[in-house]
Amino acid sequence: MPDPAVYFPVEGRDARSLASCCGVNRNWKSTARPLLYSRWTYHGEKHSIKSLWKFLCTVIRGDSIAALVQSVDARNWSFPSKTPHPDFDVLQEELFLVEQAFRAAGVEGMDKCVMGDVRQGDRKPFMALLFTRLPNLRTMSAHLPHYDAFLGSVPQDALTNQTERPTMQAFQQLEELSLVSERERPYWESSGRSDTRYSLELVCYAAVFSLPRLRRLSLFDLDVEDALHHCGPRPRTSSIQHLTLVNKTLLGGRRDDPRAPFRLKDTLPTSLKSLTFYGTNGLVFDMELEDQFREILRGGGFPNLECVIFEDVSEFVHCYTPPYVKRPNQAVKALCYEARVNFRERKIRNFPQGGKQQPWRVEITTEDEYDPKEDVSDTKTDVTSQDGGDINSESGSLEFDSEDLDELGFFEDSELELDSDDNSESLDSGE
After folding, report:
1. 363 has which bridge partners?
2. Which end of the chain is more exposed for a tag (fewer CB within 10 A), N or C?
3. Region annotation Disordered: residue ranges (predicted)?
4. Is the pTM of this model over 0.90?
């Protein structure tokens, strides 16, 4: 247990202060360092590749530091930073360290092009490698590149029975995961597709559904054209309790995309407690939703389901359909009423799509809710931020702030610049 005489003075301090506390003495260091390294933020639009490189080297050097990181918020790392940073010299020791880490991760050939990636400012391989080095990661929010072969293989490798490679140990403790499409794909990369906003290759990320400790999964503004339904039904062993995604990601049927050959009841984890679908067209015009939810709510296969949420249901739906037409969202609400399952229908005014170069938010103007405990519908105003849904007090998710701090005490892009090597040595001294 931390010394109360030390813990209370350092509790609640910002990262700069915590970094300073680590240099007081061994007692202060043992208390402040776990707080300092418990969460890591990287915003690619303002953080440099140098800061990512320095933190990666710190994590590779020190397993004890890597084990302290429990939360990650990583955004927009696949395109050049808007924050200019002078070229930095890569030490031979660091180069050898990273090359060794790539070989240990089992990535053939990646160790041969490390310097080329640094010169080109390509941060994707280093970010993916970093994720394999954080064994106690529990909460992760990430903006995904359109395609990253290495990153896509990490969760798949994590499901194998092998444990000797870092990729086999990645995400084993992960409990909450929020994935967002990083940005729109440029037209020259669209390969002739008519709509490039949802062109993220999600098939390689399907393995996240079976991560052993994952309880909350949110997929925002992601692939529909190359949807998860191409991967087949989700494994019934999934432990996910809270799931948020576009319904067509599982069911298909967008434009010329074929419908999935399986039913929703066959693809959802049976452990679900809450299911959130968002997307106007799919929720208003998908006439199969009523039958799909009837199978879910009446079949007895989802005994823990407590809440169904439809987000971004258009308030202008009356302009497209006559009032006598029974819309799917209305039918699902009636089924939830019958099954005594909480139902919420949210009208969202601002739900950004495509580029996430700035911190993004969701503004919910009204919420039509059926709560079986009250047996009434309620309309209220709510505002949420950052994750596109409710802020869950039980999930242990953390807020991330990187206005002043660049990677846990390494102030590479701020007024106060510390050499990360010197800082690492000062933190490790006295052990």
Report:
1. 350, 383
2. N
3. 352-431
4. no
